[in-house]
Hints:
- The protein has a five-stranded parallel sheet, with helices on both faces.
- Helix 3 (60-72) packs parallel to helix 4 (90-99).
- 37% of the residues lie in helices and 18% in strands.
- The chain has helices at 26-29, 34-47, 60-72, 90-99, 137-153, and strands spanning 8-14, 50-56, 77-81, 103-107, 129-132.
- By secondary structure, the protein is an alpha/beta fold.
- Residues 17, 81, 83-84, 86, 107-109, 111, 118 line the site of 1,3,4-trihydroxy-5-OXO-cyclohexanecarboxylic acid.
Amino acid sequence: MAGKVEEMKVMMINGPNLNMLGKREPSLYGSTTIETIQARVREKAADLGLEATCFQSNHEGEIVEKIHEAADLGIDGIIINPAAYTHTSVAIRDALLSVQIPFIEVHISNVAAREEFRQVNLFSDIAEGTIAGLGAYGYILALDALRERHDIKNQ
Ligand code: DQA
């Protein structure tokens, strides 16, 4: 008898200050809260036949540990908005490299059009792809992209 086909599992990780979405600089980051984004991601994931877990932290070490945990949980793809850590965190970059889980980098704002210090990015060169400037919709696009790429690899 054929075994049950395992569901593809994805994890969404949001970094510091993204718990403030809705209140935080709405002209840049919009009015959608993190809770709404997480609910939409879970809903879209279910539509795509994926299982999604969501995590937000303001602490670098917690994000590193969550990425390690993703490997133990057999997560197939990660969506990460490292927020301010995008521009500084060798530790989160190394964590992603250590688990070798494909990931899509998402930014709500168009970082390329912002300050000089935001032009340093420690993730784009190791990401499957980067989505920036499309608001909260970027997370939904990232889910579609992970599903598509996973299916292509497993054909
Ligand atoms: C951000 C862009 C970062 O530069 C910033 O520090 C954030 C959010 C974005 O989603 O646009 O906190 O990652």
